[in-house]
Specification:
It contains 31 helices and 17 strands. The chain is of the alpha/beta class. It folds into five domains: 164 residues, Rossmann fold, CATH 3.40.50; 77 residues; 141 residues, Rossmann fold (3-Layer(aba) Sandwich), CATH 3.40.50.300; 96 residues, no CATH class; 107 residues, HRDC domain (DNA polymerase, domain 1), CATH 1.10.150.80. Strands 3-2-6-7-1-8-17 form a seven-stranded mixed beta sheet, sandwiched between helices. β6, α13 and β7 form a beta-alpha-beta unit. The longest helix is centred in the middle third of the chain and has 22 residues. The N terminus and C terminus are likely disordered. It holds the Pfam family HRDC. Keywords: ATP-binding, DNA damage, DNA repair, DNA-binding, Helicase, Hydrolase, Isomerase, Nucleotide-binding. It is an enzyme of class 5 (isomerase). This is ATP-dependent DNA helicase UvrD2.
């Protein structure tokens, strides 16, 4: 029996395959991607998909029967885990590609997920944002549910909000329009109607940007204006899809027949409206895998809340919870600072923080620098960046992160003055930029009619052809002086030039037509080429990204936390925002602040309170980590038992979770050192401490495991991992309680294999033990 067949046999609900569907609303006519030379070769089998995953990631990938909740710390490979989960299910024949819907929050993240799934050989899986998935369904079902064509979707609300305000006798400037628009969006994703706005704001302790009664009036007028003009906005897409699925059972059944397996990334950012849509997609089923980290909740101003993540076990008592804490991104020094930030946090999200364990070699300590004023801080960052570039660090692997977009201009100017290329993050997606669309059109025309283009006469290879074509679009061999839009356009064209060079290195015989095919494929997957410049980005827009060197600038009181963060909840979200910034760095981290805004100004600022006890000379225990954060591992749910992850006393499930949090750190039974590595925790000893394993017992257990795996049609590690067998052979348990206490056994495996394992440990004949499966 194959591994895939074994999973289908034991988890029948996962094997309910839907019919392959035509390219209608589900697929939008998407076809399988052609092989790309810039993507690695797909694994040759389902089992090969699992290669290279750590034990917790492998658990995510192979636990295909929901519900599953993955608590994933920064840099722990969550995207890798969930894409391998989908790919393993598809490649093993357990999941029909068209029956899987993976949703996330940004087009970039959805594009990255599609790209990774393509690399793993799992074409045909839908990876979309909530809005994209909902819009496709709404467009398809609107004629049937409502009749006629779907109203036009407006890209921007500003003019509509301005017109609505004018109808109320209010003239708003640009800043006031932005604030009013943000409040309207918050109302809609939290399902708040105009009449309830004032009460909802008070209940959420939200600071309204103007009188709540006025905002409620503008909100109501805005909805009327949309109806009069026959248009809908971004949030209406979700609201209307929810309404259709609630009101039309036949349509809901059709959607549920198509999608039977759901994966939700960044689940801590789900709004109440998105959660409602997810529930309607699911119906009464529970084949759902959610992934998130409460410590990275930084979008509450948009209606996002980690409560859905933290209460997952309440809604799904039988859920499997997998905690990913092995940080593959950052050095121990960066991870130490990140853990230290969260160790001082408060609130519900802090109760469920994950204690990261770096898997990388040591690196430099984070650097802390105080400057007299903001221009000096920007110039100091530019000098350090210039030194990094001279040392061989690529510009694309360096980022400057700040709290507000208004801080960007100072750093743009400082980098431009130093002759350092840069790119601004948070603008349009790469392939949506006008200069990129125009450049690709020119390249496409050259691919068709290049033989008649005298500009290509001297172009001897693909890179020179691309340079010749893009020279007509404004590309030059040297970047333009200064900053702003001209520099941004040049950086976009330069990225295409670099892509052509890399493409040719992978395929020396590639033609311009081949490059166009590659660009089309990348456009569909939103797989943008790397822009060769230092990244300037706000902390919010940096979420999900990483660089070798990160400069966190403006880390001073009033900016971090921001001056308008007044409540405890708002201050804690600011701390989480700084945590996100810290965890973007792989190796080098520079933290800085200025005592004054401008030269000659009064030096009244002080470093952020979040750095107290963490930076040298700030007092307290630097980077204190109490060991109270959740460690990695797997928790199996039990039907009928409710509880949250680390719920405080007075809530359902509190005693059991509180007991877990109060558990003393695991120590090596040989030398007494505190254990943090997952493998060492299984052995309850350090890897380099002497083993007292019974070699004969270990070999009998290995032979027995091979027989069990063969009978079940599963890989051997699905029975017990090698480390668990070593732990059993070292402990030689005599009764079920002793065996159950060995990490990696658990109640399910104890019930299934306990009798055999105890018999082998007692010295009984192996054949006798094998006969009792």
């Amino acid at each position: 029996m194959t591994p895939a067949a074994a999973v289908r046999q034991s988890d029948a609900a996962c094997g309910q395959l839907s019919r392959p569907s035509p390219g209608t609303w589900q697929h939008g006519g998407v076809t399988a991607a052609t092989p790309s030379p810039l993507f690695p070769q797909a694994p040759d089998s389902a089992d090969a998909v699992l290669e290279g995953l750590d034990p917790e990631q492998r658990e995510v990938a192979t636990t295909l029967r929901g519900p599953v909740c993955v608590l994933a710390g920064a840099g722990t490979g969550k995207t890798r885990a969930i894409t391998h989960r989908i790919a393993y299910g598809v490649r093993a024949g357990i999941l029909q590609p068209s029956s899987v819907l993976a949703v996330t929050f940004t087009n970039r993240a959805a594009g990255e997920m599609r790209g990774r799934l393509r690399q793993l050989g799992a074409q045909g899986v839908q990876a979309r944002t909530f809005h994209s998935a909902a819009l496709r369904q709404l467009q398809y079902f609107w004629p049937k549910a409502i009749g006629g064509a779907l109203p036009r979707l407006v890209d921007r609300k500003f003019q509509l909000v301005a017109d609505a305000a004018l109808s109320c006798g209010l003239r708003l400037d640009r800043g006031e329009l932005r604030d009013a628009t943000a409040e309207i969006e918050w109302c809609k994703v939290t399902q708040t109607v105009p009449a309830d706005y004032a009460l909802a704001v008070a209940k959420a302790t939200r600071d309204a940007p103007r009188d709540p009664a006025e905002l409620a009036q503008i909100y109501a007028a805005y909805e009327n204006t949309k109806r009069e003009r026959g248009v809908i906005d971004f949030e209406d897409v979700l609201l209307l899809t929810v309404a259709v699925l609630q009101d039309r059972r036949d349509i809901a059944d059709q959607v549920r027949a198509q999608y039977q397996h759901f994966v939700v990334d960044e689940y801590q950012d789900v709004s109440p409206l998105q959660q409602r849509l997810l529930e309607l997609w699911l119906g009464e089923r529970d084949d759902l895998c959610v992934v998130g980290d409460a410590s990275q909740t930084i979008y509450s101003f948009t209606g996002a809340t980690p409560d859905h993540l933290l209460d997952f076990r309440v809604r799904h008592p039988g859920a499997t919870v997998v905690k990913l804490v092995r940080d593959y991104r950052s050095t121990p020094q960066v991870v130490h600072l990140a853990n230290g930030l969260l160790s001082q946090a408060g609130g519900r999200a802090a109760d469920h923080r994950l204690e990261l364990v770096s898997q990388r070699a040591p690196g430099p300590e984070p650097a802390y620098t105080e400057y007299a004023d903001e221009p000096e801080e920007a110039e100091g960052a530019a000098r350090r960046i210039r030194d990094l570039l001279a040392a061989g660090v690529p510009a694309a692997e360096i980022a400057v992160l700040f709290r507000t977009n208004a801080q960007s201009e100072t750093y743009e100017q400082a980098l431009a003055d130093a002759g350092i290329p840069y790119q601004l993050r948070g603008a349009e997606r790469f392939f949506d930029r006008p200069e990129v669309r125009k450049a690709i059109a020119s390249l496409r025309a050259a691919a068709r009619f290049g033989g008649n283009d005298s500009a290509l006469d001297d172009a001897v290879d693909l890179p020179s052809q691309v340079r010749a074509v893009l020279s007509g679009e404004g590309w030059t061999s040297a970047p333009p002086a200064g900053s702003g839009a001209v520099r941004e356009r040049w950086e976009s064209l330069a990225a295409l030039v670099h892509l052509a060079r890399d493409f040719t290195a992978a395929r020396p015989d590639a033609t311009l037509a081949d490059l166009i095919a590659e660009l089309d494929e990348r456009t569909n997957a939103q797989h943008a080429p790397t822009v060769q410049g230092v990244t300037l980005a706000s902390l919010h827009s940096a979420k999900g990204l990483e660089w070798d060197a990160v400069f966190l600038v403006g880390v001073a009181e009033g900016m971090m936390p921001i001056s308008y963060a007044r409540t405890d909840e708002q201050v804690e979200e600011e701390r989480r925002l700084l945590y996100v910034g810290v965890t973007r760095a792989r190796e080098r981290l520079h933290v800085s602040w200025a005592l004054a805004r401008s030269p000659g100004g009064r030096p009244s600022r002080r470093p952020s309170r979040f750095l107290d006890g963490l930076r040298p000379g700030s007092g307290g225990a630097a980077g204190r980590t109490t060991g109270q954060g959740a460690t990695g591992g797997v928790e199996r749910g039990t039907s009928g038992i409710s509880g949250t992850f680390g719920t405080t006393a007075g809530r359902a499930g509190a005693p059991a979770v509180a007991a877990r949090r109060q558990r003393t750190p695991a120590r090596c039974r040989i030398c007494g050192r505190t254990l943090t590595d997952g493998g060492e925790l299984k052995l309850l000893r350090c890897d380099d401490c002497p083993s007292d394993m019974d070699e004969g017992l270990y070999e009998r257990l290995r032979a027995w495991r091979e027989v069990q795996a063969k009978h079940a049609g599963q890989p051997a590690f699905c029975v017990f991992t090698d480390r668990t067998l070593v732990a059993i052979a070292e402990t030689a348990p005599e009764e079920p309680g002793e065996l159950a206490r060995i990490p990696g056994v658990g109640q399910r495996k104890l019930n299934r294999y306990g009798t055999d394992v105890l018999a082998i440990c007692a010295g009984q004949d192996l054949a006798e033990a094998e006969g009792r499966d």
